[in-house]
Amino acid sequence: MNVLTRFIEAMPKAELHLHIEGTLEPEMMIALAERNGIQLPYADVEAVRRAFAFGSLQDFLDVYYAGMSVLVTSRDFFDLAFAYLTRMHAQNVQHVEIFFDPQGHTARGVSFDTVLSGLVDALERGKRDYGMTSKLIMCILRHLPEEDAFATLKAACRCRDHIFAIGLDSSEMGHPPSKFSRVYREAREQGFVAVAHAGEEGPPSYVCEALDDLQVKRIDHGNRAFEDADLVQRMVRDQVPMTICPLSNKRLQVCPDLTHHPLKRMLRAGLLVTVNSDDPSYFGGYITDNFLEIAGALELDRNDIIQLGRNAFVSSFLNDQEKQTSLDAFDQFVERFSWK
Ligand code: ADE
Ligand code: ZN
Questions:
Q1: CA angle 226-17-146, nearest 5°?
Q2: Which of 131, 152, 253, 269 is most buried, judging by how many CB atoms fall within 10 Å of its CB?
Q3: How far is CA 34 from CA 38, 63, 142, 146, in A?
């Protein structure tokens, strides 16, 4: 095995852009459909896999929302999340910040509390069994009206202790961040940290809106910010973290060919970029696969990987002391790693 591959596999990692519903593997989708008596438009695992051919974000979202219909009970959410944490433990992930989409469930009659209790139980077990730390980020579905977002925020306020941040996802074009300025203002007043998907398919102006109107602490994706030199300068100056998802970008045609992916140029420009998996079941790989594929495609060297690995802890929502402890452990790992 190549030494850089060995390093990437063994490196302590943090994942900051991961939709828990996007970890639903075809096998689990079929098993949960059976367990819950849900009719899927797919006959078997192979048919599910065949549906995973996407031309755009919207193509993917149609399959993603259909897939999540099999998640019904707290146990389903527990099983889904704990399977992800178990995989991450095997990939030396120490810390995860996980998105969930309550509106994708409440719209089907699954209660907010059912979703949250399953996820929280899994995260607590992950901490107990694996020592893995975590935060939950509740996403607002941006294709739905502001009023639905407010109702979802109200539910989150009842569970303030378990939800760290608010995020924004789903169909980007035509649904700019400013659509949710008032929701985010209320969320920030309630003590939630703000993040948002922006610049995945949408223009650089959406990234500016996320920063200015929503006052986000991190941009999810943000690829298209790279088209605007003034915005890049601002994000470098302010060291705004960006959660980049290479395999997602490839599968959703945000960047058809990873050899042309902007990650390396972003890193060289001084942007605070991180590597993440987004929806690993749908996009063909978890965090380690994302590191390995982008490292190969862009010929990243060991210093690039070390920078990307450190950036994830720097960009996380761990508190200052936890961050320092994680970074010290990371640096110690690098120092002791045998490059021979
Ligand atoms: N929901 C799940 N994954 C997403 C992505 N990559 N972009 C927008 N919404 C999403
Ligand atoms: Zn995402």
A1: 85
A2: 152
A3: 7, 18, 31, 35
Q: Give tens-digit pLDDT for 61-100.
A: 999 999 999 999 999 999 999 999 999 999 999 999 999 9
> Is there a catalytic annotation at residue 200?
yes
In testing the pocket of ligand 1, which one of 15, 18, 105, 170 has its CB within 8 Å of the most ligand atoms?
170
Give domain status of residue 196, yes or no. Answer: yes
**Ligand 1 in contact with 200 (CB < 6 A)?**
yes
CATH number for the domain harbouring residue 110: 3.20.20.140
Over the range 203-222, which residues count as b (16 or more CB within 10 Å of their CB) and which as e?
A: bbbbbbbbbebbebebbbbb
Would you call 320 helix, strand, or coil by DSSP?
helix
CB 241 within 8 A of CB 217: yes
Nearest CA to ligand 1 atom 9: 170
* Distance of alpha carbon 228 from alpha carbon 291, whole angstroms: 26
Domain that holds residue 150: 3-27+73-320
Domain tally for the chain?
1
- 23 pLDDT higher than 80: yes
Rg (CA), the chain: 19
Model confidence band, residue 281 (pLDDT cutoffs 50, 70, 90): very high
Confidence class of residue 256 from pLDDT cuts 50, 70 and 90? confident
Ion ligand 2 residue ranges (Cβ < 5 Å) = 278
User: What pLDDT is attached to residue 206?
Assistant: 98
